[in-house]
């Protein structure tokens, strides 16, 4: 009997505790309901800080001759970041200039015609150019075995090859000039000469532009967040070399549920708080609302079917960041319900 009484008392105690839990839960639910009703027009969201970041690459391929910045360094727009070795482009410039001279000579001859003195002069120029080319070719034949044996520096061999290429172009130009002097020019020849001159002139301009592109400057001001390559490394056209982050051009991106879209509007002010600075309130302004929704699937509360949760990305520009909030930081955003009206 004593054991039965103890079991009965234990059961009554369990029932009493369960009833107490139910009562407390009821009060708690009411309390939470009242708290949710307060400030119902305001919207509190969680978002992440982002900032303008730009990868800087080289337009022309080549070897990095000099890096002028390190990671963490501050730069202004227009500051020199790195430089590509211009040697190959300088050789192309010499070749392009020779081609332009040749084309210009053709054009001038076609336009003016030739007298006997000019024919004789053109012949002499051709002979001289051919003689110079012959000497350079013989010199190249003598130097090539030395270079292959490692007895001749590469720079010296490169210079000789450049002289040889220029000499060949000069011979070609002299020969064409001589032929024009002998034959004279028709209208079609003049047009062809003009087109060839324009073509070579355009190629020269392209080389000159690429030479300017060997010195790469900062397109924006900010901090060097990453240096990808090292001095002496070969880079391809468009390959990122340096990354710059402008912390002053920062914003917060939040996802707003479809049912709350009536509470947001362009130009609406926002208060932003971060755990990193609990005592500070950052000011922001909505500058963009993406009208293309994002979808996520969640279980319906009545468990009858699945339903889509639709959200829209909203961009809030930070008005007073001063490099305190960094990209990736999670922040709390308060949007006043009266602001968007």
Provide a compact summary of the structure.
The protein is an alpha+beta fold and 341 residues long. 44% of the residues lie in helices and 30% in strands.
Question: How would you sum up this structure, described in words?
Answer:
- It is a single chain.
- The chain is α+β, with helices and mostly antiparallel strands and 341 residues long.
- Helix 2 packs antiparallel against helix 5.
Ordered list of secondary-structure elements with their pairings:
Blueprint lengths: L1 H36 L5 E15 L4 E6 L6 E2 L4 E5 L2 H26 L3 H33 L5 H30 L3 H26 L2 E3 L4 E6 L6 E2 L4 E18 L11 E6 L2 E13 L4 E6 L6 E13 L11 E6 L6
Taking all residues together, what is the mean pLDDT?
82
Beta-strand percent range: 25-35%
Q: Which spans have pLDDT < 50 for at least 5 consecutive residues?
A: 22-39, 297-305
Q: Radius of gyration over alpha carbons?
A: 39 Å
Q: Major sheet: order of its strands? A: 1-8-12-10-9-13
Largest sheet report: 6 strands, antiparallel, barrel
Principal-axes shape call: elongated
Q: Using DSSP, what is the number of strands?
A: 13
Structural class: alpha+beta
Question: Could you spell the SSE succession in H and E letters?
Answer: HEEEEHHHHEEEEEEEEE
Tally of alpha and pi helices = 5
Helix content: 40-55%
* N-C termini distance: 74 Å
């Amino acid at each position: 009997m004593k054991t039965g009484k103890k079991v009965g008392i234990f059961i009554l105690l369990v029932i009493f505790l369960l009833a107490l839990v139910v009562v407390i839960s009821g009060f708690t639910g009411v309390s939470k309901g009242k708290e949710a009703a307060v400030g119902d027009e305001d919207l509190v969201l969680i978002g992440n800080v982002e900032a303008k970041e730009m990868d800087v690459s080289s337009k022309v391929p080549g070897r990095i001759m000099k890096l002028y910045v390190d990671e963490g360094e501050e730069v202004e727009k227009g500051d020199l970041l790195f430089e590509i070795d211009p040697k190959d482009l300088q050789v192309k410039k010499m070749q392009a200039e020779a081609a332009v001279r040749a084309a210009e000579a053709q054009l001038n001859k076609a336009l003016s015609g030739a007298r006997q003195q000019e024919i004789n002069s053109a012949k002499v120029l051709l002979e001289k150019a051919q003689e110079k080319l012959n000497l350079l070719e013989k010199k190249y034949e003598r130097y090539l075995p030395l270079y292959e044996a490692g007895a001749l520096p590469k720079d010296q061999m490169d210079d000789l090859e450049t002289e040889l290429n220029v000499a060949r172009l000069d011979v070609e130009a002299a020969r064409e000039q001589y032929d024009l002097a002998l034959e004279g020019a028709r209208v079609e020849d003049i047009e062809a000469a003009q087109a060839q001159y324009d073509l070579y002139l355009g190629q020269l301009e392209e080389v000159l532009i690429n030479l300017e592109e060997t010195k790469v400057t900062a397109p924006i001001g900010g901090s060097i967040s990453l240096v990808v390559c090292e001095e002496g490394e070969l880079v391809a056209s468009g390959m990122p070399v340096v990354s710059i982050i402008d912390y002053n051009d920062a914003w917060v991106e939040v996802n707003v549920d479809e049912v709350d879209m009536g509470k947001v509007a362009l130009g609406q002010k926002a208060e932003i708080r971060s755990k990193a600075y609990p005592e500070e309130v950052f000011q922001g302004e909505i500058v963009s609302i993406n009208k293309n929704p994002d979808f996520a699937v969640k279980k319906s509360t009545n468990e009858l079917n699945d339903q889509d949760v639709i959200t829209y990305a909203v961009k809030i520009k930070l008005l007073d960041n001063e490099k305190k909030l960094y990209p990736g930081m999670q922040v709390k955003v308060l949007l006043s319900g009266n602001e968007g009206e």
